[in-house]
Amino acid sequence: MFRIIPQEMAFFDLFERAATNASAGARELHELLVHWDDLPERAKRMKDIEHVGDEITHEIFDRLNRTFITPLDREDIHELGGRLDDIVDLMDTAVNRLLLYKIDEPREEARQLAECLVHSTSIIVEMMPAMRNMKNADFVRKRCRDVHTQENEADRIEQHALAALFDGGHEPLYVMKWKNIIEELESATDRCEDVANVIEGIVLKNA
User: Engineering a disulfide at 161: which of 75, 99, 109, 128 sits with its beta carbon 3.0 to 4.6 angstroms away?
Assistant: First the structure.
């Protein structure tokens, strides 16, 4: 059937690019926390990734404003684009604060949270193509559960980190700095879970 205004399928490409960019950011964050060398250069690379994410998000929202017929519900497109951008923003904020607070060495819990982000964003990259045909609901549900598992692990790590920080063995300023950084990293895992939930909702709605 001829359509005067075809559905705009470029959104799927943009979502996949955003997911790949978030995964690159998680790997960069993890490398920084593991190697802990050349921090200004590593932070610059993280900032570059954040800028790429902003550009992709801007294009998603711009296309949404200019597209009459969309392949998905408009609110789903907006929420998915925003949540993907949040992941990278939170990771970039955490890296910025590592430098701003002049952190001498990373805590193990921060490395562990970065590992959760590497796993979660990799799973999201795998999930994204499923939105193109909406016939992989079982696969999406399974991978969504995998992201939930990572988020639960991140919650456990955060609780352990906070308990260790407030055990009375650290200076108050050290506690304040690391509490802030740990919470930013854990919030990034929350956004990964949000993304997985939106993808699952989209696929189930359109299956």
Answer: 109
